[in-house]
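# step 3/5: fold
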Amino acid sequence: MSTQRKPDFVEEEPSEQAVHDYLAEHPDFFEQHGALLSALQLPSTSGNAISLVERQVSVLRQKDLKLERQLKDLIDVARTNDVLAAKIHELSLQLLAARDLETTVVTVEEAMRSGFGADQAILILFADPELFADINVGRFFRVVERNDASIKTFATFLKANAPRCGQIRDTQRKFLFQTDESDIGSVALVPLGKKAEIGFLAIGSIDGNRFHPGMSIDFLARVGDLVAGALKKF
């Protein structure tokens, strides 16, 4: 007869992962054990225990608030786009009505300041300055040879063939805005024509965050196309 003692059987408690997997595989578990569901208590941020149902309601409420904020953001973006679309449409009509270069330039300047809220704006035209000596519309309109030394600092932007938003170099800001350079916090550079073959538009804001690299440039590109098309007529 054996004298060896049989080992006691020790029942292991299920692990957290096992409980998790079981509940995931049996989503109707709490429907069959409603009393257990109402008895479960979970800690809350206030320090008081709440039921699992209350926690679920709280989570759903937070999700609703998040979705509500996302919806509000989408509505705000849509409204802003509608306003921009209306301004671009108005600029199109005004440029179509312009009968000469001077009127066209004045129309663009007024649109930048009143329609698009620019604190400063400059239209750079690549051409022989002597050919446009009779155009007197203030410092908004500046005619410069493309191979002028002052333009070399914009070489990367001119090759990119797309609007650029954000901060610019001190030399670029001084060339564009001259005595007002210190007031400019951010700038949008908009090419006119393919690889800025006609020139470019510089829109300056005193707000350092008004124009930034992460913003949409679609409306700026459309404005550039409109202005380039209008200037080509002359």
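# step 4/5: annotate
The first helix runs from residue 16 to 25.
# step 5/5: archive (pending)
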